[in-house]
Give the backbone structure.
Amino acid sequence: MTSKTRSFGCICDVGGIKVGHCTDTRRPTGCTVILTEEGATAGVDVRGSAPGTRETDLLNPLNTVEEVHAILLSGGSAFGLDAASGVVQFLEEKGIGYETRVAKVPIVPAAILYDLDLGNPAIRPDRTAGYQACRSAVAGSCQEGNVGAGAGATVGKLFGFEFAMKSGIGTASIHSGPTIVGAIVAVNSVGDVINPEDGKIMAGARSSDGKKLLNAMEQIRRGNLQQTKYSKENTAIGVVATNAALSKSQVSKIAQMAHDGLARSINPVHTPVDGDTLFAISTHRIKNENANLTAIQLTQIGALAAETVAMAVCRAVLKAKGLPNLPSYSDLFGFGQRG
């Protein structure tokens, strides 16, 4: 995942998607919007035990609404959910939303990550930030690293925030014939980030001198995890998308399978102190010959979703830039911004 020639793509490759960021460098913090203005079938799977979310119940296949018009990823902890109101405002002004008798109501699920440890916690994404993220949204490419929801993201906090590393937001896509699967993930995990291709730790908890990686799982095996040390507010939040036409129950299955990508690239993951949440969306850009996908077709898309999520997690670390006392991958290993 570190080749200089390999193309990683972007969630926007799926089609029918725009991505925009609002970044507040004062702290830093920010939010990221994934716009699906034409509507997209959506599902969600929450695996961490400390989530902060909005409108996730609506995505249950048993419930009525079939499409969403945007998904918001935000910093700022639960305060950051306010940014979704700005996304709703933007979409309402464009006449986009779920049709009711008196108004079109934009459907905007959201998830947040905790980044209040950095700078002034009173600075966090709000309604204005969500609106600005929408105004900046483009279809052609995605920024990565210290932008949007990844602006204040950190990883490797099992042994205290002072030994963490800077992370960010990453994106990737995979093309398999006409089918495209993309992902975007803001990585703020308590665990280490691991490159699935070689099993090496890319970022995580550092030693007391700050120059080496501890290997969180090795320390856990030795019984060195101290309850009073580790950070209790962490998460990886993201969106996987495909151009294949999926039903609400099928896209919910894709969200579930996509979490395997987090398990391959973050260790430990889905902990009591992580709020790991992945949304999945189908933009219906390619239609099925039959009314329903076969089990093997759905398996293919789910497997690609997991792979793309793992790639996006690694991109979030590779493209991050360090902050004072929070080194990035390139700071610690001296490789520069590879990708």
About this structure: Residues 43 and 252 are 4 Å apart (CA to CA). The chain is about 20% helix and 25% strand. The mean pLDDT is 92.
